[in-house]
Amino acid sequence: NTGNNFTGKRILITAGGTREPVDPVRYIGNRSSGKMGYALAQAAKSRGAEVILISGPVSLSPPAGVEFVKVETTQEMREAVLANFNQVDIVIKAAAVADYRPLEPQEQKIKKTGEIVTLQLAKNPDILKELGTLKKHQLLIGFAAETEELIANAAEKIRLKKLDMIIANDVTLPGAGFDADTNIVKLLYPSGRVEELPQMSKTELSAVILDKIYNLMINLT
Length: 221
Ligand code: C5P
Fold this sequence. Notes:
The radius of gyration is 18 Å and the shape is globular. The model has no long low-confidence stretch (mean pLDDT 94). Strands 5-4-1-6-9-10-12-13 form an eight-stranded mixed β-sheet, with helices on both faces. Strands 2-3 form a two-stranded antiparallel sheet. By secondary structure, it is of the alpha/beta class. The protein is 29% helix and 26% strand. It binds cytidine-5'-monophosphate (C5P). Cytidine-5'-monophosphate is lined by residues 74, 93, 95, 97, 99, 124, 126-128, 142-144, 157. Cytidine-5'-monophosphate binds at residues 74, 93, 95, 97, 99, 124, 126-128, 142-144, 157.
């Protein structure tokens, strides 16, 4: 599977979770480790692609030779993705984007006065959905982490976000999803086709995902 070649292709990959500030010392975040996105960036780079990796804060080092953009919030990720979108052929959105952010991040550290405090949240932009409305030649690949109705929810996201493929995982399974070294996924396509993959490492899964993207790519040309 190293045979297929991404030389001359530009791939934008997002990875990790975003952090939404509550006050200067606190944020809302999630359990994303960035492992899946970084493994994909490494695999794409070694197949000859030009890789732009846009990442939330994680404890991994970016693979050698990739263009790296570090972001904190969903809004920063959106800016970075949109700034690069016209120049790329493929987008893989492996990031676990925070769907909501504190409506009014406090300038000073919040004091522990009340027994119950309420935090108002505002909806974040859906970056991938926005790309779906903007896309021309680009292939759009999304991820769907679900805890129920895996196929139905992932199929709905393909339609809503105009994706070419979605990688769906049931994050309740042991050995799948956030912070795990392995993943158990199903690949869905706009046609309704579903491919089930066995449990494998995120590195092995990256190779499979790139093989599938290569197939989508050559069917286009
Ligand atoms: O959160 P959701 O299940 O809708 O995520 C599906 C896909 O959309 C993922 O690839 C994720 O990176 C992307 N997404 C995004 N912006 C959001 C939420 C999700 O780009 N605000």
